[in-house]
Amino acid sequence: MADLRLIKGDITKFKGDAIVNAANTGLVGGGGVDGAIHRAAGPKLDAACRKLHGCPTGEAKVTPGFNLPVRIVIHTPGPIWRDGSFEEPKLLRNCYENSLKRAVENHCQSVAFPSISTGIYGYPLEPACKIAVKAIREFDAPLHVTLVAFDQATYDAFEKVMTKTA
Ligand code: AR6
Q: Coiled coil where (predicted)?
């Protein structure tokens, strides 16, 4: 079973095997955590992403970490929130599951996630945190998983779900 911890901070500072990027389907870089990861990794990350020819929502693809203190970056485009009836919950769960699969395939022991889809993509925080925690806890692999909350509201939402369902 994957073990789970929560920290507040900047995911680009995470030291371990892998970080997950809340990407877009073009893998062309953008704002939010994606922009921060690209800035910290350097321009080679953009070149590596372009060679992957995009990624469907809920899937996950891997690049090296370049200047980041991790070996690999796992890029996963989360669903854009519409009203919840466009398979957003299933697609968000897929993001976590497929990212964890890529981590295992790439022999990772530690992987950090941001809160996928809850920024620019507008997924409501509380249901998104529930899905994230459930998907990670149910994933059967010896992985150390860190959730990195950038802001206090995200930290509090994750903490609430983690204590309730511990
Ligand atoms: N470390 C950890 N979390 C962060 C960081 C950071 N350095 N910076 C922001 N966050 P978002 P999305 C948090 O918008 O909703 C991009 O343009 C942020 O506070 O980054 O999945 C992509 O290219 C929020 O809690 O991702 C896509 O087009 C969380 O990361 C689109 O945004 C996710 O917010 C993806 O939108």
A: none
Q: In this structure, what token pair is assigned to residue 124?
A: 């409501």
Please choose from 13, 14, 120 the residue to mutate so as to test ligand 1's pocket, defined by most ligand atoms within 8 A of CB.
120
The reply to whether ligand 1 has any atom less than 6 angstroms from the CB of 154 is: yes
If you average pLDDT over every residue of the chain, what do you get? 97
Task: Give me ligand 1 centre to Cα 22, in Å.
Answer: 6
Q: Domain count of the chain?
A: 1
Give the domain CATH number at 105. Answer: 3.40.220.10
Residue 166 scores a pLDDT above 70: no
List the 70-77 sheet strands across, edge first.
3-8, 144-149, 110-113, 16-23, 70-77, 61-64
> Domain range holding 64?
3-164
CA separation for the pair 161, 166 (Å, rounded): 8
- Give me the residue label for tokens 């877009």: 24
Tens of pLDDT, residue by residue over 105-118, are 999 999 999 999 99
Question: At 100, which amino acid appears?
Answer: L
What pTM did the predictor assign? 0.98
